[in-house]
């Protein structure tokens, strides 16, 4: 099949992914973009936008032509001297590092964290009902990954706020609007981890396995920097992402109370609901790849040296893959084929853990909350990378038997 590839000049069109209009209503922007074709070049930003589902999968699976080693963000990191060992490398180095940590992320390994994560979820749901009216970003979205990632890694951050800011800066620093302050915040996180976080880690934890033993096969470099960056990258990757998803999920249930009622009456649907929430509220707008030689996606020819945005959130609402894509449907049969976790060899390492967090929290909230209602104006984050809320005021109506 030959795909028509469009060329759009972002300077005089409304198809600039970073325009205030696109930022204000990203899914309306994706719909406009899709009308131009699944692969679109935007000269004003010098970026190829891949928003079609099939085309996004094709790019993510073709790591030979679409490389990660030249940067997976809009800007190539300038201030950070060490690259993130997994996400910013290609085979064979990527695969060697991934093998050294993968055993900690098998289904069985992750299940061992279930009691702790469920306990945290129960406390968060309890607090939500007690408060009655609150900011869901603070009370739910930030609290869950803050507690869960400490259980997983052994790292206890100075505060949930500091951790959220560090994780936010990790992606924001490499955006078109990224600032020096974002870069400094990332350096602050890495310095804190090296000087305070590591010495305070308990004797047996994932953090120690990586930093002291060099991973499961002991093959992470002896010099320590690769070990630190491997741990830092999974630690920072697991905060903002899951937090964004949880905020988007609460917002979705405020707008779709019928789906919340259905979830409460059919708890067996919770795992599929988690997938549908990932599809519907996919946190990452895009991850990037670069070409080193001419490459092809269906009929589109992409030149060497190109910056290619694989638009995960847009592809997860491609009507060719997901009929009626803007409808939240927790019974959707192919919800799990979303691209929120990416695809191919860089597919999210932490996805089993993120799923555990979401499923545990949904189960606890479903038991205690009859309804979520809006309690004020929600404010979206200015992040150009992550779909998320900065504040999301909600009120919960407690389930029968749950006191406020
Ligand atoms: C809802 C939550 C999450 C979402 C939406 C998400 C999304 C993603 C995506 C899209 C990628 C692929 C990037 C690419 O192809 O360039 C990725 C990779 C990665 N994620 Fe996640 N993530 C989440 C949670 C987590 C958690 C909890 C952890 C750590 C425990 C984590 C650690 C990683 C790591 C280390 C990679 C790099 C894997 C590699 O390059 O081999 N993520 N994530």
Automatic annotation (TrEMBL):
Keywords: Heme, Iron, Metal-binding, Monooxygenase, Oxidoreductase. The keyword Iron applies. Transmembrane segments: none annotated. Residues 1-14 have a biased composition (Polar residues). InterPro entries: Cyt_P450, Cyt_P450_CS, Cyt_P450_sf. Residues 1-21 are annotated as: Disordered. Belongs to the cytochrome P450 family. This is Cytochrome P450.
């Amino acid at each position: 099949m030959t795909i028509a590839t469009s060329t759009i000049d972002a300077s005089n069109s409304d198809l600039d992914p970073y325009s205030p209009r696109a930022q204000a209503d990203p899914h309306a922007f994706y719909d406009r973009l899709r009308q131009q074709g699944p692969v679109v070049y935007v000269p004003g930003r010098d970026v190829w936008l891949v928003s079609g589902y099939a085309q996004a999968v094709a790019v993510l699976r073709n790591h030979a032509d679409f490389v990660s080693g030249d940067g997976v963000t809009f800007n190539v990191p300038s201030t950070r001297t060490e690259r993130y060992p997994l996400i910013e490398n290609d085979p064979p180095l990527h695969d060697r590092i991934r093998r050294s940590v993968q055993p900690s992320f098998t289904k069985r390994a992750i299940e061992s964290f279930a009691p702790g994560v469920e306990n945290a979820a129960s406390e968060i749901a309890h607090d939500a009902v007690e408060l009655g009216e609150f900011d869901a970003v603070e009370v739910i979205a930030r609290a869950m990954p803050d507690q869960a990632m400490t259980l997983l890694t052994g790292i206890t951050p100075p505060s949930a706020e500091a951790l959220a800011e560090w994780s936010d800066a990790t992606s924001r620093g490499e955006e078109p609007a990224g600032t020096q302050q974002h870069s400094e915040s990332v350096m602050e996180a890495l310095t804190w981890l090296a000087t305070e976080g590591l010495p305070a880690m308990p004797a047996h934890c994932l953090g120690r396995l990586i930093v002291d033993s060099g991973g499961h096969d002991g093959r992470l470099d002896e010099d320590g920097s690769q070990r630190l960056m491997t741990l830092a990258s999974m630690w920072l990757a697991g905060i903002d992402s899951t937090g964004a998803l949880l905020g988007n999920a609460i917002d979705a249930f405020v707008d779709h109370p019928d789906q919340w009622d259905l979830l409460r009456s059919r708890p067996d649907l919770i795992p599929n609901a988690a997938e549908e929430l990932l599809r519907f509220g996919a946190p990452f707008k895009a991850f990037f790849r670069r070409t080193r030689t001419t490459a092809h996606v269906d009929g589109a020819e992409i030149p060497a040296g190109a910056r290619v945005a694989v638009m995960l959130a847009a592809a997860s609402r491609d009507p060719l893959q997901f009929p009626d894509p803007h409808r939240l449907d927790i019974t959707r049969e192919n919800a799990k084929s979303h691209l929120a976790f990416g695809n191919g060899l860089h597919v999210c390492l932490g996805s089993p853990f993120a799923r555990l967090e979401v499923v545990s929290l949904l189960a606890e909230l479903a038991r205690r909350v009859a309804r979520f209602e809006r309690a004020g104006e929600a404010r979206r984050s200015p992040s150009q990378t992550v779909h998320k809320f900065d504040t999301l005021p909600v009120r919960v109506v407690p389930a029968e038997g749950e006191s406020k």
